[in-house]
Specification:
The protein is an alpha/beta fold. It contains 16 helices and 21 strands.
């Protein structure tokens, strides 16, 4: 049971919106406020966010959620941060002014930098130390691009006038005082997504920094995921900021996947499956990422294998915003239910290339299998099925790398409300899919990390006791039908390859 009866807050800064969630000691959400921010597309394949807008939205949701909960900030025991991970921000130490918009994890502008790095050592040049292949996905090349394209930035970075961070660092620095003493820190999970951290030492790798020309003075201190980093100022004045986890690791933590072999899949803008591998960093031979799962203060880290899918919920938003197929995202399931199956239509949403298990940056999206029979319902159904099939590919790779066949999959994220998708997911995986009562697991994981640091919860067993299942889906598709449909999906994926030419 919890040690004390206090609320814990979580600031969940995602790709399309920011939320603040207040949790009680039982891990139940008491109040939530959420607000979207702009997606900025300067060129094809480029995606940016305004860091100051994200900070403004963060302050707004903090105040609004506390008001909804009917509590004062002083009633929070601590606040945890969770964030979109690979998005890069560089700002001025003296003023807090960003020198460029944040370059978002989906952005592909660093393709030339990645190709140049690969030419000198292959796509796995830094994989042994970082666990990551060379790809536009990760933060390190984004830092290099900003330093190259903002006048004087390299010299200012070397002089210590600038600070780099993923979104967690940006928020913690501002929440703890900004130019007036803000704490410049990140945790091991976010650091592991930059390509700049050594998985063994949990320190910035000087060889990778040298290869990218990134000054060490630019970088935050790497800390554990659960400790007091500093005290907040402003609306949260005096409250400890005590948890920091990248969003997918936070969801793993919120799902209480603390034992090696336990896995979760989060269905958001992208889709991300993580398998806890315990104290061992497991190299991948199947296109997965070796990453940090979490680290508690004073304890050895836990590692994970991750399958990263770039486009999941983003495909539904594309159908809504770009094609006008639906007016609201929640209309996708009713539309998909108007047909019995996908009518032979498959959508592979390689908008920014393909992530795991392929890592094909030159791939682009396709809709295949169209006939005069196909209608809006088939397109909607194919869009939902695309998320499930991409997850199947990742699970196959995970089973191969870990040597353990997953027996059930814990799921979370906004798309798990779609019960047609969840049933199809169980069908194509051939294993049960389990949705928890609290699907805000990303925010919950950040709250758990912060609460552990200040004694709201004593240990991981307290957190396990809070987890409760809401619904199970069991496979209904026979193995032959599953194999036949998977064949057509894989054929569709093959059509996306080599669309961009050198």
């Amino acid at each position: 049971m919890p040690a004390v009866s206090q609320y814990v807050g979580a600031l969940d800064q995602g790709t399309s919106s920011t939320r603040f969630v207040v949790f009680d000691p039982a891990g139940r959400p008491v109040a939530i406020d959420q607000r979207e921010h702009r997606q900025i597309y300067p060129e094809a394949g480029w995606v940016e966010h305004d860091p100051l807008e994200i900070l403004e939205r963060s302050n707004e949701v903090i105040g609004a959620a506390l008001a909804k909960a009917g509590i004062a900030a002083s009633e929070l025991a601590a606040v945890g941060i969770t964030n979109q991970r690979e998005t890069a921000v560089i700002w001025e130490r003296s003023t807090g002014r960003p020198i460029h918009n944040a370059v978002v994890w989906q952005d592909t502008r660093t393709a030339a930098i990645v190709a140049e790095l690969a030419a000198q050592g292959g796509p796995d040049r830094f994989r042994a130390s970082s666990g990551l292949p060379l790809a536009t996905y990760f933060s390190g090349p984004k830092v290099r691009w900003i330093l190259d394209h903002v006048t004087g930035a390299q010299a200012r970075a070397e002089a210590g006038d600038l600070l780099f961070g993923t979104i967690d660092s940006w928020l913690i620095w501002n929440l703890t005082g900004g130019p007036q003493g803000g704490v410049h820190v990140t945790d091991v999970t976010n650091a592991s997504r930059t390509m700049l951290m050594d998985l063994g030492t949990l320190e910035w790798n000087p060889e990778v920094l040298a290869a990218l020309g990134i000054p060490a003075a630019l970088l935050p201190r790497i800390a554990s995921s659960s400790e007091v980093y500093g005290s907040a100022t402003g609306a949260l004045a005096g409250i400890p900021i005590a948890g920091d986890l990248g969003d997918q690791q936070a969801a793993l933590f919120g799902q209480t996947c603390f034992a090696a072999g336990e896995a979760k899949n989060t269905y958001g803008t992208g889709c991300f499956m993580l398998l806890n591998t315990g104290p061992t960093a497991v190299p991948s031979a199947s296109g997965l990422l070796t990453t940090l799962a979490y680290q508690l203060s004073g304890q050895p880290p836990a590692y994970a294998l991750e399958g990263s899918i770039a486009v999941a919920g983003a495909l539904v938003r594309w159908l809504r915003d770009n094609l006008g197929l639906i007016a609201r995202s929640d209309e996708i399931e009713p539309l998909a239910r108007t047909v019995a199956d996908n009518g032979g239509v498959y959508i592979v949403p390689a908008f920014s290339g393909l992530f795991a298990p392929y890592w094909r940056s030159e791939a682009r999206g396709v809709i295949v299998g169209l006939t005069a029979f196909a209608n809006r319902g088939h397109i909607a159904r194919a869009a939902l099925e695309a998320t499930a099939w991409q997850t199947r590919e990742v699970l196959d790779a995970m089973n191969h790398d870990s040597g353990v066949d997953l027996r059930a999959l814990k799921v979370d994220g906004g798309m798990v409300r779609d019960e047609l998708l969840m049933q199809f997911q169980a069908d194509v995986l051939g294993v049960p899919v389990v949705r928890p009562e609290v699907i805000e697991t990303t925010a919950l994981g950040a709250a758990y990390a912060a609460g552990l640091a200040v004694g709201v919860w004593k240990n991981l067993d307290d957190l396990r006791a809070n987890w409760r299942a809401d619904r199970h889906w069991t496979p209904e598709l026979d193995p032959a039908g599953r194999a036949a449909a998977y064949h057509w999906w894989q054929k569709a994926v093959g059509r996306t390859f080599d669309w961009l030419e050198p």
